[in-house]
């Protein structure tokens, strides 16, 4: 049955093998240094865009050397063959689907819940950008390393120390994407909420709590050490630019960012529960007043959702698992809530939801299976609802596949949300030139030049 889940996911994305490179792909792959073997080693000592200005100051506040190294190896193997790059990204996504199944099978202890978790994860439309954009290869790659490390932890049984392989996988995840710093928190919460009690099962609550906290500290100590070393080296590589505020957000007060936070969080919630809203990105604008509907309506929504979840889960027999899933979502989204890093364009990219969605898919799948056990009538309703959700997800995903296959349509769609983006206008000029529209390409280049001059 797992093979069927993998096959369905493969078939859903198979069209991507004919996709061209798009948007940021050109920046990473069409640079004059990627063909040099020194590109691989130099990527360990530079920011994510070091190759744009070798020897200059960091152009990016990100340190993601493993992405550059993987792309460099792929270039040496395949040249600039888009089909090969897309095949690697698709294989990475399938690997993540497999790991999601393994983790869900252990945490839910139910084969059907694990299969449904993997299928939901494989087809969720919000993952389209992470799978279809070569520049976003680090999302499935980093997720594979994170999930591999986490699975080794939860399958270790009575072994208290973390295996060296898990620590090595965690280091690899950090070198893919900085959101991997949250894995130690995820491991600690697993120990506190879900790890079998073992010999302390019959001990008083205080004794059990102390034992679990002690076990959590032991489990994460090597992860924490690696994380601290990574953060120190990251600061060194980026010339102390640990957090670089964007031009558009550097002058914005913390109060405005706090007022904007509920809206951004609701946008992430919408990606979970309304799959047809998925695209390549969404846009959030600053909220300046507490009296604005853009502040209080999202806040009311989040408050209502929190109360609803509390009422539903407080006496639920699976409440520990569902609380863990909710915390998984929150922990993995937390690094993406650095709102200063989202502006001047205010982009909420769908790829940010790749790792957080594991918790959502697992909670939804397990809840559906638990409901199905209540009787034949309920089982029929659950089956119909699940089938409808999967069908909607597949239809939306197919639509996104078509969007990503046409670079001009993709960039024009981006420009409807970010009309002042000089980068998008330059990208559209390049795409139009490839299609032979010289007049349109010249217009977009002139527009980009005017915007760059005025910024």
What would your notes on this structure say?
This protein has 455 residues and is mainly alpha-helical. Helices cover 65% and strands 1% of the residues. It contains 19 helices and two strands. A two-stranded antiparallel sheet has the order 1-2. Helix 12 packs across helix 13 (293-313). The relative contact order is 0.11.
Structure described in brief:
The chain is mostly helical.
Main sheet: strand order = 1-2
How many individual helices? 19
What gyration radius follows from the Cα positions, in whole Å? 23 Å
Straight-line N-to-C gap: 54 Å
Shape: globular
List segments where confidence is low: pLDDT < 50 over at least 5 consecutive residues.
241-248
Q: Structural class given helices, strands, pairing?
A: mainly alpha
Number of strands: 2
- The H/E string reads HHHHHHHHHHHHEHHEHHHHH
Helix content: 55-70%
Q: What do the pLDDT scores average to?
A: 85
Sketch the major β-sheet: 2 strands, antiparallel
Strand content: under 5%
List the keywords:
455 residues, mainly alpha, 19 helices, 1% strand, globular
Record the SSE blueprint.
Elements: H1 2-13, H2 24-29, H3 38-42, H4 65-78, H5 82-108, H6 111-123, H7 128-132, H8 138-154, H9 164-174, H10 183-193, H11 205-237, H12 254-273, E1 281-283, H13 293-313, H14 319-333, E2 347-349, H15 356-372, H16 376-405, H17 407-417, H18 422-434, H19 438-454
Antiparallel strand pairs: 1-2
Helix pairs in contact: 1-5, 1-6, 5-6, 5-8, 6-15, 8-9, 8-10, 9-11, 10-11, 10-14, 12-13, 14-15, 15-16, 17-18, 18-19
